[in-house]
Amino acid sequence: MGGVLTAVALGTALWWMTPFTPIQALFLSLAAAFMGFAGSLTMAAIQRDRGVKDFGSTIEGGILDRVDSICFSAPLFFHLTRWILVSPHPIWFH
Known about the structure:
Shape: elongated
Number of helices: 4
Order of helices and strands: HHHH
Radius of gyration: 16 Å
Largest sheet: none
Structural class: mainly alpha
């Protein structure tokens, strides 16, 4: 919970570096943080189900353990960003 709150606070505080408003930055950082948490839990469940302790020996702890959070959060962030910035009539947060 502390990691999610820290990520949301940091993502919202750095809104001025992005093309987003502070409310949009809050929403995007909250969505990315929660989906990162969900991705980590999901990939851990898949690893446990398949009996895989560490996925790869290149990096200590395994490669999948380093990217499991972005498996869910990166696609969501991409599509939300595209919807906010490219959509001809964004529905929210002007």
